[in-house]
């Protein structure tokens, strides 16, 4: 079988995660990493794969089947996905929820014009969680859905703490409130405030001589980021931070609590849970599976922008339809 | 919007569950229940909906968009699904795993010949669980999958106990072994025997004067059904059985424990869990959502037999693609 030829755009945590994921998928081959940094500054883990400057993508339409865009949603993807969607099948993990309709429209126009298939927002949230939310709501129309995130490191909240004067480094964990999880699991379909759903825990390395009480106050009263949550702040040494909080674990839960029966007297609870040692590596695994789908839909002439809602699960799997029915149905 | 016109074939627990589910889905309308019993012996919960003898389906091709087949997998569906697949879009919950390839082939031939869309095995297992198994294995190719069933009533095992001389009535619960769930959740990807995964609990009403020790022995040594499991037997009165074990709860878990990263050193765990007060009512909810998909794929000319692997999640949802992206992505 011919391998699907993959190009990675961006070689941060996510791009490296895709490189690792491709090793686990023998039907795909990495043909190059494309970067805005000097190519010679990057050392790949895959022998023989070249690093190109981003510009080199122009003219490589015949050498790459699917581009996996591994940049950020703030600046990279809004520019890159529409730019490349007309020339390559592509997958991104665009995750700025409010801007998804505009991103979809821009990518869709480019992909249709070029006759290519693009899949956006194909991580775990948005992505797998979205899929479960749609599936569970379709099956249980009478009910309530809940999404919880964590326990995991939030990069945005960690950055917000780092910007406080006197903070040298910081890590912020988002944590579902156990009582909220229990209430949802009971089938009671509770109404939950922001504060009742999640709490936040910060591990902070202070500059020498910094006023810790002031830093703590600045954190727990910070609007949008912390003021609406119960937040705990721990101070620790730089060594402790690196030793105990060096990873990027994450995860979360999607619940749908529904009612069935003649008088809607019976409960039905759907729970989908992810527990991830490495958030970017798992996101990369999702992107990689959707690369297979982008290639197949593209080959079938289904041009335009798609999301997880548009992809038949079989398109993600290396198994044939017959194998899927025999082994997994 | 024109409603999707639904016909229910078979009016047992599952058929009644579909009737209740249709009330929660305003884009669908029940146009008739079709039964092998004398139609006058059935009392529907939906005013004004007629009950027809099964033969009345011949000639109703213009009045029914999608048939939901609510009979059993042993005798009903192998005969009915191929028979009607050429004339109606249809959905069934065929669940005899070993016979799925043959059932698929028979339904596919009929559906293609008639230009109709059939979706088979669209319950929760096979069905939603199959979908999660395929999805999780595609995302985490390096890993192990586990399916656990219960705590819930197994009809087949309950029937097996009832066939023992001296047993008046019985209910059997299949129960995941808590230590096995813990081991899987730890990310250790353990090898588990049949006995290590599930245990069985039987509630038995004995005939007066029956030898309870003999009944208990007959249960726990029964090949295939109980001999490979740790089984607990409780004797109780008929009143107690009806009072405490009158429902049909069920549920279960699908896990995928995978590895990510440069040296596959990081764990990623997917857990999907269902907790259902009523097994047939939830299965009916799944069938009903897939009726929407069968109608839409049928309208789009996608003739033939499909399974959950072939259905884009958007096809299950009453929301438009724009609503899905805005609200659930």
UniProtKB/TrEMBL annotation, chains A, B:
- A Pfam entry, by short name: DAPDH_C
Catalytic activity field: meso-2,6-diaminopimelate + NADP(+) + H2O = (S)-2-amino-6-oxoheptanedioate + NH4(+) + NADPH + H(+)
Known Gene3D superfamilies for this protein?
A: Dihydrodipicolinate Reductase, domain 2 (3.30.360.10), NAD(P)-binding Rossmann-like Domain (3.40.50.720)
Entry coiled-coil feature ranges: none
Q: Where is the Meso-diaminopimelate D-dehydrogenase C-terminal domain?
A: 123-278
Q: In which pathway does it act?
A: Amino-acid biosynthesis; L-lysine biosynthesis via DAP pathway; DL-2,6-diaminopimelate from (S)-tetrahydrodipicolinate: step 1/1
BP term (GO), one: diaminopimelate biosynthetic process
Q: Which InterPro entries match?
A: Diaminopimelate_DH_Ddh, Meso-DAP_DH_C, NAD(P)-bd_dom_sf
Q: Which GO terms describe its molecular function?
A: diaminopimelate dehydrogenase activity; nucleotide binding
Give me the residues that bind substrate, please. Answer: 149, 174, 200, 250, 279
Q: What is its EC number?
A: 1.4.1.16
Q: Which domain of life is it from?
A: Bacteria
Q: What UniProt keywords are attached to this protein's entry?
A: Amino-acid biosynthesis, Diaminopimelate biosynthesis, Lysine biosynthesis, NADP, Nucleotide-binding, Oxidoreductase
Q: Where do the annotations place NADP(+) binding?
A: 11-14, 35-37, 70-73, 93-95, 122-126
What protein family is recorded? Belongs to the diaminopimelate dehydrogenase family.
Describe the subunit structure. Answer: Homodimer.
Please give the name of this protein.
Answer: Meso-diaminopimelate D-dehydrogenase
Provenance organism: Flavonifractor plautii 1_3_50AFAA
């Amino acid at each position: 079988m011919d391998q699907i030829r993959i190009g990675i755009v961006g070689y941060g945590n996510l791009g490296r995660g895709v490189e690792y994921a491709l090793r686990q998928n023998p039907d795909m081959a990495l043909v190059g990493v494309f970067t805005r940094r000097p190519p010679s500054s990057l050392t790949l883990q895959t022998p023989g794969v070249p690093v190109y400057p981003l510009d080199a993508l122009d003219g490589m339409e015949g050498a790459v089947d699917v581009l996996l865009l591994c940049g950020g949603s703030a600046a990279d993807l809004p520019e890159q996905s529409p730019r490349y969607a007309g020339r390559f099948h592509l997958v991104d993990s665009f995750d700025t929820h409010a801007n998804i309709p505009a991103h979809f429209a821009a990518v869709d126009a480019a992909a249709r014009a070029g006759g290519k298939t693009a899949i956006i927002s194909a991580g775990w949230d948005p992505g797998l969680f979205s899929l479960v939310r749609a599936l569970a709501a379709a099956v249980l129309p009478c009910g309530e859905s809940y999404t919880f995130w964590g326990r995991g490191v939030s990069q945005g909240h960690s950055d917000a703490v780092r910007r406080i004067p006197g903070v040298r480094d910081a890590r912020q964990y988002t944590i579902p409130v156990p009582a909220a999880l229990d209430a949802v699991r009971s089938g009671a379909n509770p109404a939950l405030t922001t504060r009742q759903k999640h709490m936040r825990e910060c591990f902070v390395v202070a500059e020498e001589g910094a006023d810790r009480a002031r830093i703590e106050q600045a954190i727990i009263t910070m609007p949008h980021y912390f003021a609406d949550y119960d937040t705990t702040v721990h101070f620790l040494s730089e060594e402790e931070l690196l030793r105990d909080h060096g990873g990027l674990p994450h995860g979360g839960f999607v619940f749908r609590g529904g009612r069935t029966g003649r008088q809607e007297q019976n409960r039905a609870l759907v729970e989908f849970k992810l527990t991830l040692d490495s958030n970017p590596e798992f996101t990369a695994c999702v992107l990689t599976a959707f690369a297979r789908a982008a290639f197949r839909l593209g080959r079938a002439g289904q041009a335009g922008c798609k999301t997880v809602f548009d992809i038949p699960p079989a398109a993600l799997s290396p198994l044939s339809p017959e194998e899927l029915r025999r082994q997994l149905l």
